[in-house]
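Dear support,

I submitted the protein below through the web form. The confirmation email said the job was done, but the results page showed an empty box. After a refresh the structure appeared. I'm attaching both so you can tell me whether what I see now is the final result or a partial one.
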Amino acid sequence: MTAPRSIVSPCVRVCRISPETQFCEGCGRRLREIAGWARMAEAERDAIMADLPRRLAEGAAA
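What the results page shows now:
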């Protein structure tokens, strides 16, 4: 049996929610995702992590 993966957070301590995109300008997550991060299933966190580059690029273009 393998040990569970530790929870990795994309937080970079730049916490500002963009009014245009509703994503954090630092990490790319939505406020509800930030609040529930530690309780999310690993697969859900992985899916969000995979989408962060697109979200951050969208925020930079806004």
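Response: this is the final, complete result; the empty box was a page-load delay. The longest helix spans residues 42-61.
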